[in-house]
Amino acid sequence: MAPKKFVFRFFCCYVVLLALAACVPTDLETAVTVTPTPSAITPITPAPTTATSTPAATLLISPTNQGQPLPDLPTPTPLPATATPEPPSIFSGAPVKVGRGQILDAAFLPDGDSQAIALGWANGVSLVTLDGTERWWQPTNALLIALDASPQGDHIAAVLEDGSVVVLAAETGAMQQYAASRPYVYWSDIAFSPDGQQIAFQSIGPQRGDSIYLLDLRTNELKEVPQSRIDSTVRPFLVWSPDGQTITQAALGEECSRLVNRDTGETELTLKTETTCYAPWTIAYAPDGQKIAVALPTGGDPAISIDFLQPDNGEVIASFVGNVLTLPDQTVHTLHFSPDGRWLATPGGFSYYGEAYPAVVWAVESGLVQAELPPTDRTRLLAQSFAGDTMLRFYEDGRITRWPFTENSAVETAVAQIPVVAPYLEFVWSASSNRLAAPLRFGGVAVWEAATGAQVAQFPAPFADPRLSPDGRLLALRNLETEEISLHNVDSGQLIATIPNAATLPAPEPFSPDGQWLAYGSGSKLHLLQLNSGQTVVLDGYPADRTIVNVIWSPQSDALVAASSAIDENPGTVILWEKTGDDEFTAVYQTESTRAGYTCCVTIAAFSPNGTRVAFERFSSYEATSFVVEVYDRQLGELILEAPEHELNAWQSEDLLLTNEAQYDTRLTIWHVVNGQKTVSAVGAPGGSEVYAPNGLYYADVAGPNIGRSLKVQQWDANVAAGKVNFGNDLILRWSPDGRWLATLATDSSLWLWPITLPEP
């Protein structure tokens, strides 16, 4: 049912930003138009790099070039580099990088059948061989956006979120960093010239699309390709002509992609038919430069999907039949020729709406399909390369495969697996704040030390739903296949116990603070396992068609709030259970919430610091008028406060509770729960993605009208930012229970821990 006459803030647990063009920064300097002209730039001196062959899963990360300012961007009238503010006092040190994040891009080095693969992780670059051996790893001091390898195989280059370009020696991993463009890059393409001496790159960011820049590695000269600025809604796509004189410029809408002269920016060919544009991300030059392959947009006539054009006049000289996915849902090029020009390939994959497109190899001379390979899952293909009559392919989950496409009924075979420890969606802290755990994007669970970011344990799929004991020593996991809960010693990896018939391992606190109890759901019943004795207490009182999804313990472990799931428009049941005997718990208060199963950015219940009172957020329907904040006094055994049309945020003390109005102004409000007095702030609630510090006086949020550009900590009552750092990615935020850490998990699986020093109230 739609809300009536109000603005209702709907909270979302997991945010994946699909419309990149909607991202808008709050910093005005990111919207300034800058047009660089030829100028020499000074590379940033890198930290020493040591080549290693250590397996990826055991490597620790230490930032390079941390804190070094970037040189000014060369311009006709020199502009100062973006000011780097003094670190806010509330952020009390450099962030800890936990793991490498996800593999975002990859490129095969051209070395025949013994090719190596350059891997662009969220936090750095590595080089591995086809058997999975890592030659070196080089961390970066900003998030990686795009990567390429030179045709000669001697260099690797990447664009970073802060606008810089890094160039690495393929032999050693030694890295040189260049201040090349402005920060807040969220999509980019980078490509080496055929002779490997120049790098072309082009980026888009909030409210801005860059020109094509050329970086000359011999002279360190940076210049702009004239008239090559791109619209901020178009993904860049760069392909050099074999003679190095022409480069592609992608376009959408009424504009068609072009081939432009690298020196003058003049259009040499517009890629269009009589009625439509060719798909902008499908351009491929034949190795001899005599023809260009380009595809019609997906959804056109499937009988003629690829045209071969003459580069000088665009005349169609041949057409191939095949089904080509022309949208840029992956980093591998949509069309590419084999080095000898005999084969043309498209990688296949899945469309946005789930349609499957096979990988296809055509024989260029005959135009016939040589082989097709249907996709088996939605794991993205990041790179593929011809190795004679074999296709090498690399996937985002770390698989290296070989496809002998010239053989009859040839299948794709995995030849190596690169470990990818990429935290995903939900992560949890131990109550002591010394460890945190997360499920992994490609299955399994990992645990890290907060202070160092070192991985201390990893458990394979089908384990999921990690929950740490208060001291971080024990880890409870749920087996998705057997519906069992297993209890493990984190340090030794030893299996301690297995609990059958466990449907749910509820968030966020199934372990009691004293470490004596573990709560889990079996059907609609709440089970409490006494860890010392192994005895189980079963608590019934939830609808038969629900499951237990949320558990919150009192600080003294003598009570807990447990909630069942909501179904359709029916709210979940929220019950306060009091411990009334050694192995006995009694339901003393019950309410309901349609947000009972939310684990992010919603507080359905909270115990006061001493545990004597419990605040509930009752939300019986999807109408803002049904919001009620209730405070139950455990000693009196009754409600002492009801605040209609308010949402629950956090306790500030035993007597003071922070809420916000549920509609209209959504102003923050402090309630004195004993006398009912309220103080209404002029400050409105941030909007749904904020998370409150344990003391309730500060909250963390992302700056700007859209999530993901900067991370800020706000002192809400004064409406003053207590600290802000640029980040440049979409985030899920979590405070550590002691308030000393702020953890941010980005959509590229980069997990960062920011040390925080909160001033005393």
Terminal Cα span: 42 Å
- The proportion of residues forming helix, as a percent range, comes to under 10%
Q: Strand portion, in percent? A: 35-45%
CATH homologous superfamily heading of the domain at 32-80 and 100-238:
YVTN repeat-like/Quinoprotein amine dehydrogenase
- Briefly note the CATH topology name of the domain at 32-80 and 100-238: Methylamine Dehydrogenase, Chain H
- Uncertain segments are 1-39, 45-88
Structural class: mainly beta
Question: What is the element layout, followed by pairings?
Answer:
Layout: E1 39-40, E2 96-98, E3 103-108, E4 116-121, E5 124-129, E6 134-139, E7 144-149, E8 155-160, E9 165-169, E10 175-178, E11 187-192, E12 198-205, E13 208-209, E14 213-216, E15 221-224, E16 246-249, E17 258-261, E18 267-270, E19 284-285, E20 292-295, E21 306-309, E22 316-320, E23 336-337, E24 343-346, E25 349-350, E26 356-357, E27 359-363, E28 369-373, E29 381-387, E30 390-395, E31 399-403, E32 413-417, E33 428-429, E34 435-439, E35 445-449, E36 455-459, E37 463-468, E38 474-479, E39 484-489, E40 495-499, E41 507-508, E42 517-522, E43 525-530, E44 536-539, E45 548-553, E46 559-564, E47 572-581, E48 584-593, E49 605-607, E50 613-619, E51 627-633, E52 638-644, E53 646-651, E54 656-661, E55 667-672, E56 678-684, E57 691-692, E58 698-703, E59 710-715, E60 720-726, E61 731-735, E62 741-746, E63 751-755
Parallel strand pairs: 41-45
Antiparallel strand pairs: 1-15, 2-63, 3-4, 4-5, 5-6, 7-8, 8-9, 9-10, 11-12, 12-13, 12-14, 14-15, 16-17, 17-18, 19-20, 20-21, 21-22, 23-24, 24-27, 25-26, 27-28, 29-30, 30-31, 31-32, 33-34, 34-35, 35-36, 37-38, 38-39, 39-40, 42-43, 43-44, 45-46, 46-47, 47-48, 49-50, 50-51, 51-52, 53-54, 54-55, ...
